[in-house]
Design a protein that fits this description.
Blueprint: H1 38-52, H2 60-77, E1 80-83, E2 87-93, E3 96-101, E4 104-107, E5 114-120, E6 125-129, E7 131-136, E8 140-145, H3 147-150, E9 151-153, E10 159-170, H4 175-181, H5 186-203, H6 207-211, H7 215-232, E11 237-248, H8 254-323, H9 325-341, E12 348-349, E13 360-361, H10 366-369
């Protein structure tokens, strides 16, 4: 029968898989059980009844009937079974799937009409592709590479060495029946599907993303492709995780690949530094250019405003000059002299003084008669310009 290769554990009675039945016979090779020898069973039952019942036993027909009833009772009781926690029972009738039995006690038709196979639906199974873990008593666990599984061709015609692991379990919802009856070698099937899916995903990718930052994308793509393929097979298997263990170039060229990776890293670093410098210099230059433009615009506005004001002032003065030229000239002269002589010390000379006189007229400077402003201690007073004006 197809479930004989699964190792899921077939029940059939409360004595569990692989234990002896009520007649002292255990499961035989091939997944079935040897039926009891009825004649031998009847003979032993008659011998026991003769020793127990008074008068040396009953008649032959009555003894046979009692033995048959006892045999039927024991055969009916053998239909009880127990499913342990974490397991799922698959109930069959004449070898055909009938239903799933949850953890606990259950009953089905006894053998050979019914049977129960038990599978563990909580155990996580692991399959390594491209590598093997070897246990050594002295050195511990070591990993051995399997090149015929790990070497793969990328989309840009490069070779890459990929080691990965697949974690899987049986689906809890109707997955046990599919797992028992639809696939014969579960581990071999999962391994073949995993290697095929990984080669397909690697064949669609370039080597550079594979070696750098595309590990998560590759794992997700392989997981989805494996689950889709196994669902098409109705295998009852659930892929929980795909883990990339090692993604490297082949050993013969790994040094050259590392040199190329280092050169690319230097190139990216130089590009990033240049971009950083450009991002700093260009805004500064644009800021200075904007400042120059604003200063020029302000100077233009100031110059135009001053020219406009001077033009208006000149026009006003010209209007007054046209009305009274002599008065206007005298007034302009006095205003100009007042503006020039306001900040100078003045000495008045009188040319009409006698020969004995010096011709200097005493003059009281109003600036000197004013009190000088006080300055904070430690700071000098501002110096006043001195000049002489002869008139």
């Amino acid at each position: 029968m197809p479930w004989s290769n699964q190792g899921g554990g077939g029940g059939g009675g409360p004595w569990g898989s692989g234990s002896k039945g009520p007649w002292g016979s255990g499961p035989q090779p091939g997944g079935g059980t040897q039926p009891p020898d009825l004649e031998d069973l009847l003979r032993r039952s008659q011998d026991k009844l003769k020793t127990v019942l008074p008068g040396g036993g009953l008649g032959g027909k009555i003894g046979i009937a009692i033995a048959l009833v006892a045999a039927l009772f024991l055969w009916g009781v053998s239909g009880f079974f127990v499913v342990q926690p974490g397991e799922l029972g698959v109930v069959q009738r004449f070898g055909k799937y009938v239903r799933d039995a949850p953890a606990g006690w259950g009953y089905t038709w006894p053998y050979p009409i019914g049977a129960v196979s038990k599978v563990n639906i909580e155990r996580i199974n692991r399959i390594d592709v491209g590598m093997r873990i070897v246990d050594d008593a002295r050195r511990g666990s070591t990993t051995r590479d399997v090149p015929e599984e790990s070497l793969m061709l990328t989309g840009d015609e490069n070779i890459v060495d990929v080691d990965f692991a697949v974690l899987w379990k049986i689906k809890p919802d109707r997955g046990a029946g599919q797992f028992l009856f639809n696939i014969q070698y579960p581990e071999g099937t999962v391994k073949a599907v995993a290697e095929s899916a990984m080669r397909e995903v690697i064949g669609r990718s370039n080597i550079q993303p594979i070696l750098t930052g595309a590990r998560q994308n590759i794992e997700n793509a392989v997981h989805d492709l494996m689950q889709k393929t196994l669902d098409e097979y109705n295998s009852g298997i659930l892929i929980t995780q795909v883990q990339l263990q090692k993604v490297d170039p082949p050993t013969q060229v790994i040094d050259s690949f590392r040199d190329v990776q280092a050169a690319r890293a230097d190139l990216e670093r130089a590009q990033n530094e240049a971009q950083t410098y450009a991002n700093r210099v260009v805004p500064e230059a644009r800021g200075r250019a904007a400042q120059i433009m604003q200063n020029a615009e302000a100077y233009r506005e100031q110059t135009v405003a001053e020219a406009t004001g001077q033009t208006a002032r000149f026009n006003q003065i010209y209007e007054q000059y046209a009305k009274a030229p002599q008065v206007t000239r005298q007034r302009l002269y006095l205003e100009t002299m007042e503006r020039l002589l306001s900040g100078t010390d003045k000495i008045i000379l009188d040319p009409g003084a006698g020969a004995g006189g010096q011709g200097v007229v005493p003059y009281l400077s109003l600036d000197q008669s004013r009190p000088r402003p006080t300055q904070p201690q430690g700071q000098p007073l501002p110096q006043q310009p001195q000049a002489q004006q002869r008139r």
